[in-house]
Write a structure and sequence with these properties.
By secondary structure, this protein is an alpha/beta fold. It is about 50% helix and about 10% strand. Helix 7 crosses helix 13.
């Protein structure tokens, strides 16, 4: 009761978000949020690890910086239950029609999405959060889909691509979870895909992922806001490379990532990755080792390489960025 606007709802929701953060994390830190200016709308393009908490942590940072929270792009596959659909819309979410099959219908949906995003930022002065790719990066390999960057331009085809991108104040956002509550489920899915060639979700699987993602233990969480893209990019491929460089470079690596990398069969011997003991204090590393060994022991042996891959991949990616190597 007493809720008569989105702002009032968000104030109420904020209490629960704060409570969840306190209960399910060891603290949340932010970098780059101080560069966000009042009265300016941004297009936050973020890596995607958790269905609900990714945008929630970005919202939390922006809200506590005293700025209006962004409108959130969510896939229609997450709206099976009407109450979820209504709540997400009230919380400034808009729907991305991912389940459309036909090419023409898909193009029309993308065109409408493009128009909405451009109007929101350039006319309404309302920021937008959208994931860099459809679906979560279950293998830990955060990559920007060129198709999403192309979509931003679709409704303004008469203008140069680079000009459109610059007008949207595009900000690469990196979200890092020390521990992923859904890591064992992701490892299982990766194993099934690798051994059978496909994976079919069971009914209600997304609901389970959402609940676990909200309430499950995450350790420390860090969100980095890179500076807005001001360079002129003439095509989506070049922009995708830069977005990846910024997102992977801004990712906060925790001890568990280095521990996993040391065990990874696909580690790159040409990269100068220091051992975890050279980067972190002994007590911090000991705690991480206990947690990590527990997680490895908690999954079947055949799933373990995929659990290791999830945590090790960001190390390889970041050290490739540091070395100026192609991703």
């Amino acid at each position: 009761s007493g809720i008569d606007s989105v702002a009032t709802l968000q104030d109420k929701v904020e209490y629960y978000v704060d409570h969840t953060i306190e209960r399910a994390t060891d603290g949340v830190t932010y970098t780059g949020v101080e560069q966000l200016r009042s009265g300016c709308a941004y297009l936050f393009l973020a890596n995607h690890r958790d269905i609900v908490m990714d945008p929630a942590f970005v919202n939390y940072a922006v809200y506590h910086a005293g700025l209006p929270t962004p409108r959130i792009a969510i896939g229609d596959n997450l709206l099976q239950k009407p109450f979820v659909s209504d709540l997400m819309r009230l919380n400034k979410s808009f729907i991305v029609h991912r389940s459309i099959i036909g090419r023409r219908e898909k193009m029309a949906a993308y065109q409408l999405l493009s128009a909405y995003i451009n109007h929101s930022i350039t006319k309404d002065c309302q920021s937008i959060w959208i994931a860099q790719a459809e679906g979560r990066a279950k293998d830990g390999d955060d990559r920007t889909e060129s198709a999403i960057l192309k979509m931003f331009h679709m409704s303004r085809k008469d203008e140069p691509f680079g000009d459109v991108i610059r007008s949207l104040n595009l900000i690469p956002v990196s979200i890092s979870y020390e521990y992923d509550p859904c890591d064992s489920a992701k490892a299982r899915e990766l194993y099934i895909r690798a051994t059978t060639g496909s994976y079919i979700k069971t009914p209600g699987e997304d609901d389970v992922s959402i609940a676990l993602g909200i309430t499950g233990y995450k350790g420390r969480v860090h969100v980095n806001f890179a500076p807005p893209i001001t360079e002129q990019f003439d095509d989506t491929k070049q922009l995708a490379i830069e977005m990846d460089r910024q997102i992977l470079g801004g990712y906060r690596l925790f001890p568990v990532h280095y521990l996993a990398y040391a065990q990874w069969s696909d580690a790159d011997p040409s990269l100068e990755v220091p051992p975890a003991s050279e980067v972190f204090a002994a007590d911090e590393l000991e705690r991480a080792r206990d947690e990590w060994e527990g997680r490895l022991a908690g999954v079947p042996a055949e799933h373990r390489p995929y659990l290791i891959q999830q945590y090790a991949t960001p190390v390889r990616n970041q050290y490739r960025v540091k070395a100026g190597l192609a991703l």
